[in-house]
Amino acid sequence: MAGATVIHQLASLLKETGDGQILKGSSHLALTGTTLKLVTDAIERIERKVPEDRDASANGSASQTTLSREVVFLRDFFLRVPAVKLNKLPDHLNSVVDLSLFKSLETLSMKRIPVSHVVGLSGVREQCKKLSCQNCLVDIKDLLLSCGADNTGPLSWSSLVDLDLSYNGIPELNESLKLCLSIQTLDLSHNQLVSDETGLQHLPHLCALNLAYNKLESVPKFNQHACLCLTRLILRNNNLTVLVGIEHLKHLQDVDLSYNCLISHSHLSPLQQLNQLTKLFLNNNPLAFHSYHRCMTAARLSPHINPGAIYLDGKRLSDVEKQYLPKPDGYGLPSPTADSSYLTAGGSSPTRLRSHPTKSPLKVTPKSKGKGKSSVRPVSIHEDDIDQVQKGDETTVRSRLVFDDEHTASLKREEAEMLRKQVGDGWLVSYQEKNRKIESVGTNNHASAGETTADASTLQTNSKEPEVDAMKQPLTVHTLHDDDEED
After folding, report:
1. pTM for this prediction
2. Alpha helix locations (H) across 81-176?
3. CB 118 within 8 Å of CB 148
């Protein structure tokens, strides 16, 4: 009776809304594995007992006739459904989920149903365009090669363009992917992938790839043709320490590298080849806690990207950060003599370096007092000297950037892993505090070095040009009185 109630409710629902939404493809037919099992068993009984049902109908069994008609309606409806979602394993582990009723299926989504308990996959393989299997398998061969419980041979999934294998325990990819040459979107997130040497090289038309929440230590290798097609790559929450290989993906627009182990901004150099990049995520990497993270990242992007279209960690680049973008002539940081150049000093507000278009000297002549006349040489202060002082400021900032980046690069991966084990989830915060202390020490060292240089230059000036020091003394003028003249 429970099965008859479920069939009656399902048939009533599909008669009301099924034709307008499900059969037109705007909505999916969502069923549990248990419900599908009840419907398929009822259809088998009806097909085996068609003569008995006709006799029962003649004898006046109205309820049995109504049930038979509803089962026949569901069978005919299933034959035309283009999209199905199946969820949960049936109550009995030995039960089988049969897909042979869905002759027009183009989109199939399964969750928590082992592929080994699914029959009829081989019947939908040719026309299936979108396939999703979550918490269903460990080896992709069971799905793509064997077709679940069908145990068929290696046949092509010729129409499949969107494949979602997320939330499985897949440890590696294999050559079964070459049965899906038409795949354009592939989701392999939340698996156990450590590396991939050959699997993705069988997909020449790949446009979007999600490899988040795996254990990858390097960027995978791709098909040569896919390097020209791939526009979106998600590698967040992996163990990436370098980005070697990403420079071959010339048409990448959206790249997510957050929550990895990228320590130094020098490891971002491969990004200079991505001329069409518009979105880049680096948050929660060790390098993202650097005081000049956004500026140093901008300095390692392609000189041909659109400055107004680039987003870093979800935010547009500011006008100051755009000045650090490499120029097509090969220069990265701005020139201190350019009117639009900026430098960020001390991690605070940006300091603008203004240019001085004229080079005429400024003559300073002290005024003489009283009757006495003093011959004073004019002192010429060229604005080149001012530029030298400003260049010294830039040198200090550049040296600090280099100091911080080299120190960050010196932290090896083993040390990061040890810090992660000791501190736990807050290891990046501890690492940031450690860097701040080292930054303060480095800044004090640079300041001390600057004071020492200044003292040395002062001593040298005193020894070689004493007349210049005399000029720097305040001018004293004596007034002659009548008594003095008599003397």
Report:
1. 0.70
2. 121-124, 141-144
3. yes
